[in-house]
Amino acid sequence: MALQGARFAPLTIRYSHDPLPKFHDEDIEAACVSNNLIYVQIPDCVVNLYSSNSGGIGMTATAETAQIVTLNSK
User: Cα(63)–Cα(73) distance, rounded to whole angstroms?
Assistant: First the structure.
């Protein structure tokens, strides 16, 4: 995941299961190659911030659900 509202900062989210079982690694790779962003909504995501030893801020995240968002163009 990359947080669009945070300059595409990377975020790894831990799930107890695969939240998008019909979405495969090949789909992600094809989207990256074509520079076609995949938007995902994670309504129950909990992000925890912590300070690192090097003085930066780190993030951990957990969730149980996720869904692909389809953007409508006008």
Answer: 29
